[in-house]
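Worked problem 6 (solution included).
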Amino acid sequence: MISAKLMKSLEEQGFTLEFSRYQSNEEQIIELIKEHNERLFLALPLLLRYEFSYKNIINKINKEEKALFIRIILIAHSIFQTEKIEHEHIKRIIQHYHLSATITKEEHAYYALAFKDALQRKANAQEKAITTQINMRTTLHLNKALSLIYSPAKRRIMEKIFNHELLTNTELKYYYRAIRPLCEAILNESLQKYLRIIWVLKKYS
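Solution. The predicted structure is:
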């Protein structure tokens, strides 16, 4: 098995491997339990948010693993209640199989903190992805608008200025001769009002 440390290092170098996905939530839960890793157990409540067959899982784990699984189901149930997360499937399992165990406050807090941290990281990642998409679309729209007004040579010089890059003497002369006058015209308030009237009248005519 490839170590997580090696995979993380390879990913930082831009290399990734394609792995097969789990066929079911039960398969993922069973494999996680059988890792016998306390840190990985913290991920179980995340998986228990989704439907799973309790019977299929307990038939494939040993007695010790079953006791652990029951405890985490009860912890997840308590976390979901506190966080107001729908979990009718877990309520049914607890009632049907009469699951019970003593959970300490410290144990509950340990799992609850990891659960909330994971959800926050996922939300942050999703927000970052949305922001990236918005920025990409904004850039595309900006480039399209610029291409209607400025030639490729003018856009290259403007991009250098935007990125705080020094212009050559030739580029500087070209900027003052051909780019700056056009920028001043576009920024002129009277011109903007005039163009806005033209655009509105044409839009609704």
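Discussion: The chain has a mean pLDDT of 87.
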